[in-house]
Design brief:
By secondary structure, the chain is α/β, with parallel strands linked by helices. About 30% of the residues lie in helices and about 25% in strands. The two termini are about 20 Å apart.
Length: about 325
Amino acid sequence: MKKHIKITGLGIYNPANQVENDYYLEHFKKQGRDITNLLTVLGREKRHIIDNNHENSLTMGIEAAKKALDNAGIKGKDVDMIIFASQCPEYTLPTNAAFLHNAIGANNHTIIFDANAACAGMTIAVETASRYMLSNKRVNRALVVGSDANSLISNPEQEITYASFADGAAAIILEKTEEETGFIDAVHYLDSTKRENILYPPKGFSKSNGEKEYIDFKPFDGTPSIMKACEMIEEFLTENGLTIDSVDALCLSQFAVSNIEIMQKHFKIAAEKTLYAGDEVGYTSTSSPFFALNKGIENGQIKRGNTVLFWTVGAGDEMIAMLFKY
């Protein structure tokens, strides 16, 4: 029987501390700036921000992973592969996946590694795990975690990061199955001429001298990237014998609700087909499409058997579109 890769568990984690728009409006008002319009364009209302010294991208990822394991009804020892995706990792040595492996009590045979594709990281990690599982008979279950403590590097003088980015983690369990469901395909697009639009550290580690630094997010027009994404998605669906009407739900980058609205208009799709959680949790970067997935499952918009389109973009510009039958 042909094997498929199914999502069998999902878990998310947010810090308890929730910050609303008023704080950021007042913060930038003191700097002589009114960011009301920006918050509207981004679609922000609330976001979760770490306000203690014991939470970070690793601790959040561990909590999300435990929820995903519980949701799937399995234990850490049942996992054969762990990928930890982050653009704000707690450690560079050893892997954060090693700490996660220990925290959930996984076995010694488990394949582990960290991944960083900026905001596209977790989605790319899910594709990587899915394709790897199909080619390796020893890997039957994989745990993919995406976690970022963005507040550590968001610039208090730069509204696009400080007032928008948030802290959070998502985790999913992938499992081999003979059911006609799960991972379908994924496609990528890269425009590396934009590699210096968003930088951290701004001058690179070799020139940082151990100093505290923030993301350098240069102003740029992201509309061409969204239009390229629409073109990319159209070609991708055609290659898979589908149309946008064949897709039951879209879990897109939660960076800006205005970008989602452009895509809704382009594809002439109803607003309820696209899941948006960025107003409630802020922009969690690498995990953001999976916060949308969680919202869709919780409110009943995404059901078993539904075809879900994921799309997101990371600094670079690095895009991925991925299809799953949930």
